[in-house]
Amino acid sequence: MTGTGRQAEQLEPLPKLAEELLRIHRETYGKGAHETRAYLLGNSVVCFLEDLELLPNEEFMLEREMADAVVEIRQRYQEAIGGSFIAAVERATGRRVTSFLSRMSVDPHFVVEIFRLAPAAGPFD
User: Fold this and answer.
1) pLDDT tens digits for 100-124?
2) Whole-model pTM?
3) What's the structural domain count of the chain?
4) Which domain holds residue 81?
């Protein structure tokens, strides 16, 4: 990272975690996404759910220019179900999640999930 004295952090793909988060998303929303990617970067995990599949009621609301309502409902639901996503990340990384953020875009349809992790234990911890 620039200016911190740290070596550049490597982006590590986490394909099994991406599949697990997509599975949870499909089970809880009833729909999924056409592509999912998850990455570990230092003390963060970032997951992208691309080409998000919307529910019929969400499509209906978007057709009537009610995108804010779709985003709001998804945001609130994601906060409610967040524990399942956090547990999956903790299992996959072996680290505790300290915070979680989920954001949706309606044009184009995608979701980004960001998980902040507790620092990894060092060799002398």
Assistant:
1) 999 999 999 999 999 999 998 765 5
2) 0.87
3) 1
4) 11-117
